[in-house]
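Hey, can you fold this one?
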Amino acid sequence: MGYGYGYGPGWNMMGGWSGYGGYGYGFGLLHMLIWIVVLIGVIALVAWFMRSVAGTHLQHPPQAPRRLPGLDVLEERYARGEIGRDEYLQKKKDIGD
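Sure. Predicted structure:
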């Protein structure tokens, strides 16, 4: 006869041609490729997110508070003996440190 279940050639009880819902053998491969692309996309998204979160911490490391440039000059003068301790402490207080 050659006909399955009276529906015509190649029709079977799975509801379509060749048992794959009418899509044939190539649909299984296509379906698998779609899921591989989705998986790669999710992995890439997670990697991008992790790098962006880690990158914000690396771009702005904690810094020591800025010193006033006049304080460096004052300390050098005190170290060379150009000014005394009392004058050094008074000028340091005046500078604001």
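The chain has two domains: 25-63, 67-97. Let me know if you want another pass with a different chain boundary.
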